[in-house]
Amino acid sequence: MTGKTVVEIVQDQLGLGPATVSFQRTLRIPETGVHPLPPGLGEFPLRRVSDYPDTAPPEWLSRGGVMLPIYQREAMWLSFDAPEPAALQIGVGKVCAVSGLPWIDHLIGDPQNYVALPEQPWLDGINSGDGFIRQFVAVPLGSGATVEGQVTGEETHGGVQLRAVGLTEEALAAWHAAREPAGPPVDRDEYVRAGLPWFDYYDADAKDLAPSKILAKVTSVGEKLGVEEDPFVPVDPKTVVTISGAGPTPVTDGSW
Q1: What is the dihedral of CA 67, 71, 75, 79, to 10 degrees?
Q2: Please, what is the Cα angle at 12 between 9 and 15, to 5 degrees?
Q3: Considering only CA atoms, which of 29, 63, 161 is closest in space to residue 103?
Q4: Helix, strand, or coil (residue 173)
Q5: How do residues 159-206 score in pLDDT, each as one tens digit?
Q6: If I label 150, which of 35, 96, 224, 243 is the partner at 20 to 30 A Cα–Cα?
Q7: Torsions phi, psi of 199, nearest 5?
Q8: Which of 12-16, 123-127, 244-248 has the highest mean predicted lDDT (pLDDT)?
Q9: Do 154 and 113 form a contact (C-beta atoms < 8 A)?
Q10: Are strands 47-48 and 13-16 parallel, antiparallel or unpaired?
């Protein structure tokens, strides 16, 4: 992890300023053939390296960061979340997992060395072209099998590097402004002219709750404010979508 962004662990998720990353445990699929994405098996637990001064390797302690336990028979994918636009750099052994170029502490667009959040929700591994990915897996450092070893010919760094970059204050303000609703509110006539559906809930066995005596005293907004409404435009029955309350077939206890 690099940069000046405050990094923290919250419920096994890594908070990187504008971005949150979780490390998802999954199956290690065969390296030959084409396979669909395997299911997620939950988050890997994250621990601060500095919390283990007596057991963590000295080189880990000198670098800091976080660590997670992973078997070589397992694989990992990264899940992303961001409430606002952000760029996330991802390195494997100080090799950019997006471009394959050496890790640098700033963003470049050609070739792109980051993923755009929140548009990209996850990263399964290294894009090897033609729709194939190589999963994030654990291999011994020094084996020559790491991405770092195969790309650079050396295995010095290892691990995963992450760096999140948010928008500038001006760009963030512009983004928020663009999300604010523009123009006059939609009225009934415009809704009907657009042919948008109306909804009606139907459940033959359902019964209404008894009305609240307190809420029964609440009047309509028009009555309260003395506003006269325009005549109601009838709704075309063809635009009414009936929603059934039946749902899935319930399983009776003891039926099996």
Answers
A1: -30
A2: 40
A3: 161
A4: helix
A5: 999 999 999 999 999 998 888 777 677 777 777 777 777 766 556 565
A6: 35
A7: -130, 145
A8: 12-16
A9: no
A10: unpaired
Residue 143 tokens read as 């084996």
First to last CA, the chain: 52
Distance between CA atoms of 45 and 27, rounded to whole angstroms?
16
Q: Which of 29, 30, 8, 28 is nearest to 20 (CA)?
A: 8
Query: Percent of the chain, pLDDT > 90?
Result: 26
**Long-range CB contacts (< 8 A, 24+ apart) of 193-200?**
195/239, 196/239, 197/239, 197/240, 197/241, 198/235, 198/239, 198/240, 198/241, 199/240, 199/241, 199/242, 199/243, 200/240, 200/241, 200/242, 200/243
The beta strands (E) that lie in the chain are given as 7-10, 13-16, 19-27, 40-43, 47-48, 66-67, 74-81, 86-92, 95-96, 115-117, 122-123, 125-129, 132-137, 160-166, 198-202, 240-244
Q: Are 165 and 86 in contact (CB under 8 A)?
A: yes
Identify whether 111 is preceded by a cis peptide bond (ω within 30 of 0).
yes
Q: Which residue has the tokens 């604010």?
A: 180
pTM attached to this predicted model = 0.69
Task: For residues 155 and 96, give the distance between their C-alpha atoms in angstroms, rounded to a whole number.
Answer: 14
Cis peptide bond upstream of 118, omega within 30: yes
Helix, strand, or coil (residue 19):
strand
Both tokens assigned to 71: 């078997």
CB count in 10 Å sphere of residue 216: 7
